[in-house]
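Lab meeting, action items carried over

1. Structure of the two-component assembly. Owner: GW. Status: complete.
Input record:
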Amino acid sequence: MTLEKCNFKEGEHEAGNGTWNAGNAGDDAACSQGRRIWHRAFAPRVSLSFRRRPHPVPCATASPEDAIIADPVTGARIVDASACVGCRLCLRSCPWNMISFDEQSQKATKCFLCQGHPKCVEACPSGALRRGELGQALGIGTGGLLDQWSIPEDAWTQDPATSYWKLGHPKHHANEDDGQCGVIINTQYNRDAQCHSHVNFIRNGLPLAVQKKLAAEIWGSADAVDGAGDYTPMNIHKARRARWSLVRKELHDSLGLCNWMGPWVASPLKERGYSGDDSLESRFYSLATGEKMGREELDLIGERIFVLHRAQTIRGMGSMEMRTRHDLAPQWIYQDPGGAQPFTKGTIRMDPQDIERAMELFYEVMGWDKAIGAPTAKAYARLGLQSVADALAENKLVPGVKG
Amino acid sequence: MNGPESQPLCQALAMAIRGASSAGQLVGKDALLAELRNRGLLDPDEPDVPDMEALLSETLAANADLAALTGISGEMQYHAPPLLSRTYAGILDSKSSPVRLIAEEVRRNSAEYPRPLPLELFEQSPFDLIPEQIEASLKTMAADPEFDDISFITTSTGAVYLFSSRHLERPYAAFLAERADTGLLLNP
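Predicted assembly:
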């Protein structure tokens, strides 16, 4: 199919999805369509507001002769060849590059949805063109798909192969990589956790004994880290490592540092005792800005960012019952296909009671209310977020504070 | 020979060891003796050769960046750790005995990391074994009780991983092999 027959239904524009055509590889049309697919999938959200304007058809607006009209049967915008004067203004105005120019007839041309029975939809073997389903799926994410495809969340939470975590979002380096630390980290976000601080330590390539030596130096005990699939019961040192991982992840995201690489607390150099530098972030910051900033001071800022994120979630949910309503884990973490028990070598199966303890210890090191997992007024104040606490308190969203 | 008289020889030996390490090679006593002769520091027609072991001891004592290890042949091998690490030196030394090289690497990795090793690793640098050498080594190990701890696991993709049962139980080795072969790739 060529671009000459390409159209884009108005209603689909507004939904942020649409149809596109599979051009022949190597031809210009395919290149153009590739750009279009890219544009459609990743276009800045600002274009959505543009599409929702009262007259969301830029090509029709641009046409001086009103040559872009709505097909009364299909609703598709089509070119009225009898009115088109070949000025090409519609080509330039279309944000989706949907209109092409027929050099022979010297008129604009576009897809007319094959009068309501698009050939591309019939031909597509994967169904991806079906009324823009794939485009919509990309837009609404896993959670939306649960509803749209009528798949109960339970079906996802039982099987680790789905990589599903909670609230419609996938896991990211959870218990399969880092036991309780991975679980805690995955409970904390409203999306794919995208945290690599913890796994960069686990996978730093050093022997386990060296990792444990470093763990003792950084988090107070060699027990802060386990070998993969050889997990031991939860302890406070693991909670500290989870906290450190989250804080550094927020710092990396905010400073433009790479959380796929850092933090840099391990070294390949024997002469350094394999120790890296836990203050590199603050040293980078000081170097780049000229403002002297120590490690602990910068970590406090990272924690402030993380807790502000938490406060926003509490406000958005209208509840401070984070432990039972937000900090959830899927059922598959408590299962093993071979029936292996938790804390036996070679399984990533977690123990429910141990995970409960993990959450409590994590809330403890964060200074949050252990029963519900919400930051306390004291925790907000420590981070300079008193005004945030005051605003939440008005809605009875701070533990122990009456609004 | 020692003291001021041996100093030029020791300096030449140190340079030769560093040069070999820079080129990714270990060097032994005989090669170093030849190097001294090549540099014209020894008379090639002189039947009496200097006490190389004493010279090399003196060289190592005067140069903290140099080290020696006893090779599997029993001969001392020399290297400069900042340029060629002890681990790398051990691998190079063991290349003359692929059976021992594979077994020792498998045992060390099973004990220390712990992790099983993919068989194909031994085709890559610095091991650089050819498939025929690896196959012959596995057959030798299978028949020799000295290596009865070396075992293998096949992952779901068909990749073969070696481990030592002295340090890893089979189920855990299987978990780690599957994780290395598929889990880490699916979870970058």
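2. GW to write a short summary for the group page. Key points so far: Residues 103 and 136 of chain B are 13 Å apart (CA to CA). Chain B touches chain A at residues 112-114, 169, 171-172, 174-176, 179, 183-184, 187 (CB under 8 Å).
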